[in-house]
Design a protein that fits this description.
heterodimer, A: alpha/beta, TIM Barrel, 6-stranded parallel sheet, two-stranded antiparallel sheet, disordered C terminus, B: 281 residues, alpha/beta, 5-stranded mixed sheet, 3-stranded parallel sheet, binds iron/sulfur cluster
Chain lengths: 442, 281
């Protein structure tokens, strides 16, 4: 393009639909964001919508894990995470939106929400929309509002960015189907990790109402994969799969219970992600931890680390915890814990070990393990090389040898080892919280 | 013979230096841009950029391995101190040892370049998220202050995102801008750039975004250190959510984002492998 044309092109005014915002939308946005913020899921990974003519946006792999900001709590902001409405007919005890809570209620119109999404997207504030909702009138009515919004975005605004939508338990299967054809990812939140917890704290929800749409989404995903093999242009159903969220610390389940549940969800429901959300006491209730109890951030952190080990490191839940060790050691990460419990596995010789074995070394990640495999083909590696390959030596040094030698001057025994590992991790950890379970009523 | 070369600061100029050092069998102890010239005890010479010489060096590099050529091109975009010398030494090694040299990730010649390129990629990745556009007269415009010259690597991403739009990204640090319109993108040096003020509509969306940003944080989990680690302060300067009040006030006159002259200047190395516009549709 000749340079002289530029100013003219840049001056070209593109007409697009306008919605006049009143202060009203600003108010609604505050309320419906505030009510949605406890959901941990905020990622756009797994998207695969490439460019379409006449559309705006893409969700190619280049934007996977793209954070557009970080909020004051340090969490990644990727999607416009809001509720369709915070009106709710249910009364889940742990939730700010429960029927019995005295709070200001409002709802977006589908037009308002679509306009916000597209305009935030154009400004690169977000990668897409994460739409959840309280149950307004009934599950079907709520889902229809959500579907209308998504339809506006996809069809009228030709929005090609990422959409994550929450399927409302109890909604008709046809509506779940429609939602899945518009969204990239669907999720059904389990929230409370046990049926007894559900009965106690979310009396309107049953395990069955949650698992039914999950199963539907799973089998629809499998069916869709086959369709896409046969017809390349078959409509995609939730191509980024489904996820769920578990609330940590509202009910007394231990880490073993939660990790087993997670493993089961990956194995049997093929979930893409399980998110954990440390319970923030938002309401005073005899069945819940008191309002002065801090959210169990360290515990949440350990569970995410363990979840990572399940998804990328080839670990199984039963390797990390068992009947004797029902909770993660708060002092060291789950991989270090595993290594300390399996001294016979170490040290690993980095010039010989295969990929899976390298991944078991604390301080060696997916990237550094691959780099080790590549680098050692040009000649034997020494401990001095490993740091440059991305290995975190202050952890890894105790568990490996390179060309038969450990790092120079390294002295330790079983006791000092644990101590050293605790020290290396400490500075980057969330504050340990007060013991939660003891405050929980029997 | 040991020498210091001066060149015009362009990528082609840098490649011409490499050509000349081989042609004249000279070993370089430093390569400086003309404007950074410092008195030196070594013999020095100014190398005139020669497109043909540059092409020959680049072709040679691609022949060794395309990823070697890419590494050199990207290395040139980084803010590494004395990047020319580091890259020159890397080229010498590559010509001597062949492509397998690229696997020696801990080698003292390769490591600093690979690390600098990793930082470049890191900055590009962060900016894909942190860049904020304003819509001004139908054009999307933004400003950034990166350490590295990231525009060539941001190009593909934003061209795909705003395929049907016109947009620009102005790099305050290196005083150059990426322009895109009608399916074509160019990167050009630009002086004295000033962003137009927002109109009412634009100011309104800025405000909505700020409100969303402030509402999404969970008070009980506040963690300034974690936020800072994830999003270093040096990016905040150009992000909507951290601007002061005046940024959210509309100006009464219509915004005009288009009134800037685009002066001619030295071209930047804008074409990189895997970075060209390709039509995926
Ligand atoms: S159904 Fe959802 S929004 Fe309604 S009270 Fe229960 S958790 Fe809250």
């Amino acid at each position: 393009m000749p340079l002289s044309v530029l100013p003219a092109v840049l001056a070209a005014v593109v007409q697009r639909p306008t919605i006049k915002h009143t202060m009203d939308v600003l108010e609604k946005l505050s309320i419906l964001t505030d009510a949605a913020k406890y959901d941990a899921a905020c990622t756009s990974s797994g998207g695969s919508r490439s460019f379409k003519k006449g559309h705006i946006g893409n969700t190619s792999s280049s934007v996977a894990g793209c954070c557009h900001s970080f909020s004051a709590d340090g969490r990644c902001v990727t999607l416009l995470k809001v509720l369709m409405t915070n009106r709710c007919i249910y009364d889940c005890k742990y939730c700010v939106n429960r029927r019995s809570n005295d709070t200001r209620r409002t709802a977006f119109t589908p037009e308002e929400l679509a306009d916000l999404t597209i305009n935030f997207y154009r400004r690169n504030y977000i990668e897409g929309l994460f739409l959840s909702s309280g149950v307004y009138r009934n599950p079907d009515y709520t889902m229809e509002l959500m579907i209308q919004t998504l339809r506006l975005l996809r069809e009228t605004y030709r929005f090609n960015g990422y959409i994550h939508a929450k399927a409302i338990p109890g909604a008709a299967p046809e509506l779940v189907e429609q939602l899945g054809l518009l969204a990239d990812r669907l999720s059904v939140n389990i929230e409370l990790p046990s049926e007894s917890g559900l009965k106690l704290l979310a009396p309107d929800k049953s395990k069955k109402a949650i698992l039914t749409p999950m199963r539907q989404i799973q089998s629809r995903n499998i069916q869709n994969k086959e369709e896409l093999v046969k017809y390349r242009h078959a409509p995609k159903f939730a191509p980024a799969g489904q996820s769920t969220q578990l609330i940590i610390g509202a009910t007394p389940e231990d880490d073993l219970h939660i990790l087993r549940l997670t493993q089961g969800l990956y194995d049997q429901y093929r979930l893409k992600r399980v998110f954990y959300s440390a319970y923030v006491p938002v309401v005073e209730h005899t069945l819940l931890p008191g309002k002065d109890v801090k959210p169990p951030l360290l515990r949440e952190h350990r569970l995410y680390q363990a979840d990572w080990l399940l998804r990328f490191y080839g670990f199984r839940a039963e390797e990390l915890l068992d009947e004797e060790h029902r909770n993660f050691d708060p002092r060291v990460d789950p991989k270090c814990s595993w290594a300390l419990a399996h001294p016979h596995f170490f040290p690993v010789e980095v010039n010989q070990a295969d990929y899976e074995t390298l991944l078991r070394i604390p301080g060696v990640g997916v990237v550094s393990a691959r780099r080790i495999l590549s680098a050692r083909r040009t000649g034997p590696l020494h401990t001095e090389d490993l740091r440059k390959l991305g290995v975190v030596m202050k952890r890894a040094q105790y568990f490996l040898t390179a060309s038969g030698r450990m790092a120079d001057g390294l002295r330790f025994n079983q006791d000092t080892l644990l101590h050293n590992l605790i020290l290396t991790e400490q500075p980057s950890l969330p504050q340990p919280e007060v013991e939660q379970l003891s405050l929980f009523l029997p | 013979m040991e020498m210091v070369y001066y060149y015009d600061g362009s990528f082609e100029g840098f490649l011409s230096c490499i050509f000349e050092s081989y042609a004249k069998k000279e070993v370089l102890t430093a390569i400086y841009r003309d404007e950074d010239a410092v008195p030196t005890l070594f013999d020095c010479r100014t190398v005139v950029t020669d497109q043909d010489h540059a092409n020959r060096v680049l072709r040679k590099l691609i022949k060794i391995s395309p990823s070697a050529a890419e590494l050199i091109q990207k290395g040139f975009l980084t803010c590494m101190e004395e990047k020319e010398l580091h890259l020159y030494r890397l080229v010498v090694k590559l010509l001597g040892e062949g492509p397998s040299f690229l696997r020696k990730l801990s080698d003292e010649t390769l490591y600093p370049v690979a690390t600098a390129v990793r930082h470049l990629h890191g900055e590009v990745h962060l900016l894909k998220g942190f860049i904020r556009f304003s819509e001004l007269g139908g054009v999307l415009g933004s400003e950034i202050e990166p350490k590295n010259r990231v525009l060539p690597l941001l190009r593909t991403h934003f061209c795909a995102r705003y395929r049907e739009d016109a947009f620009f990204i102005y790099d305050r640090t290196h005083k150059e801008a990426l322009f895109y319109a009608g399916g074509k993108a160019i990167i050009r040096p630009i002086e004295g750039f000033q962003m137009a003020p927002p109109d009412e509509r634009e100011a309104n969306y800025r405000l909505l975004w700020k409100r969303f940003y402030d509402s999404i944080a969970i008070k009980e989990r506040e963690n300034p250190r974690l936020r800072m680690n994830n999003m270093p302060k040096r990016y905040w300067n150009t992000m909507t959510e951290f601007q002061d009040e005046s940024y959210f006030k509309a100006e009464s006159f219509p915004a005009d984002a288009a009134g800037h002259a685009v002066p001619a200047g030295k071209p930047v190395p804008e074409i990189l492998p895997g970075c060209e516009l390709s039509d995926p549709g």
